[in-house]
Design goal:
Order of helices and strands: EEEHEHEHEHEHEHEHHEHH
Largest sheet: 8 strands, parallel
Distance between the termini: 32 Å
Shape: globular
Number of helices: 10
CATH superfamily: NADP-dependent oxidoreductase domain
Radius of gyration: 18 Å
Length: about 270
């Protein structure tokens, strides 16, 4: 596994397990299976409505809490000071945890003062319920605003990032500010898996296109949280750390002309960052 040291000094695994749309008994089983296969970074959110299943999977895995890195998120409708505190409390109860390692603002909400949300997050850190704070789906101007308003370091920005959405300007912007990018939908919900460039590079390495896409992100110092429901895909996605892409292969992937955003339910949110 590859790790990144956050401003708090805590290490975050660069490959995590995404849990969007994993729920119920099967979701709990998938989380437990992922942990057994070596995933220690587990990503969920209050809006996924699956924190109970994720928490059960964590419990069923038998893995020591200190060996896990758990992320959850506060939805954009719950970002007022009091709502953020209450949402985190509910998340901790559902997850059966005393703290989460990372708490994110899931989506920005321009109608709720960002300073109020960040003040609530700082209180949660002070109380020991959260170890690190971050943002998600923030474009560059909003990243800078969060930095300006936060009493604590903004540790990460989780965004959609894959070979069809190579947000290089945002990557550099965050890297210069010591903010780790974490890629959700790193396979563009499967859209990149039939790409000719990825298929060709995959054949060169006897790997899958999914592995190529994930390895490309790691080469860019971008963490990733792919979701997988089958054991075979879970195992393949984590088998990334004993091989590398060449500089020429990375350049080929950087040059893929397709631009496709697969998560854009808030029209206009990203217009300023193209």
């Amino acid at each position: 596994m590859q790790y990144h040291t956050l401003p708090s000094g805590q290490a975050i695994p660069m490959l995590g397990f995404g849990t969007y749309r994993l729920s119920g008994t099967s979701g709990a089983a998938a989380v437990a299976q992922a942990i057994e296969l070596g995933y220690t970074h587990i990503d969920t959110a209050s809006n996924y409505e699956n924190e109970e299943a994720v928490g059960q999977g964590i419990k069923d895995s038998g893995k020591a809490r200190a060996e896990l890195f758990i992320t959850t998120k506060v939805g954009r409708d719950n970002l007022s000071y009091d709502d953020a505190l209450q949402t985190c409390e509910k998340s901790l109860k559902a997850l059966q945890l005393e703290y989460v390692d990372l708490l994110l603002i899931h989506w920005p909400n321009l109608e709720i003062p960002l300073e109020d949300t960040l003040a609530a997050f700082a209180r949660l850190v002070q109380q020991g319920q959260v170890k690190n704070i971050g943002i998600s789906n923030f474009i560059r101007p909003r990243v800078d605003k969060a930095i300006q308003l936060s009493r604590l370091p903004i540790a990460v920005n989780q965004v959609e990032y894959h070979p069809y959405l190579n947000q290089e300007a945002l990557r550099q912007h965050c890297q210069q500010r010591q903010i780790l990018l974490i890629a959700y939908s790193p396979l563009a919900i499967g859209a990149v898996l039939q790409d000719e460039t990825l298929l060709g590079i995959a054949a060169n390495h006897a790997k899958t296109p999914a592995q190529i896409a994930l390895r490309w992100l790691l080469h860019k110092d971008i963490a990733a949280v792919p979701k997988a429901s089958s054991t075979a895909h879970m195992a393949a996605n984590i088998a990334l750390f004993d091989w590398q892409l060449s500089a020429a292969e990375i350049t080929r992937m950087d040059a893929i002309p397709t631009v496709k955003r697969v998560i854009d339910w808030w029209p206009g949110n990203f217009e300023q960052d193209t």
